[in-house]
Amino acid sequence: MKGDRVEVVIDAGGSTRTYEIEATRAGRRVDVTHGRGLVEVTETTRGGTPVRSARFMAGRVLALVEHPAPRPGADDDTEVTPLRRSA
After folding, report:
1. Most C-beta atoms within 10 A of its C-beta, which of 44, 49, 54, 67?
2. Is 22 part of any domain?
């Protein structure tokens, strides 16, 4: 869905680098696959055609965070009450 994005933080030899891959158009999604020492993040169309992809060595990946696009609430969603802090 447009607005979905994945943030990848990697070790760049003494510092960190952050990369963001985002679904840029309606109907596109961001897929994450990992295996054989690689992490691949791909933006794909509805039909499954890859548009953009990024590959990272799995040993260098410090964090991989998926940020879904905000979805509108349904009519039957109940209000969430915050937890109270105990004394």
Report:
1. 44
2. yes
Task: Let me know if 8 is exposed, middle or buried by CB neighbors in 10 A (0-12, 13-18, 19+).
Answer: buried
36, two tokens: 């054989």
Instruction: Identify whether the C-beta of residue 6 lies closer than 8 Å to the C-beta of residue 21.
Output: yes
pLDDT for residue 10: 93
Closest by CA to 22, choosing from 68, 60, 64, is: 68
pTM of full prediction above 0.85: no
In a domain, 26, yes or no: yes
Q: Are 28 and 51 in contact (CB under 8 A)?
A: yes
Low-confidence ranges of the chain (pLDDT < 50): none
Structure tokens at 11: 């070790």
For 17, residues 6+ apart whose C-beta sits below 8 A from its C-beta are 9, 10
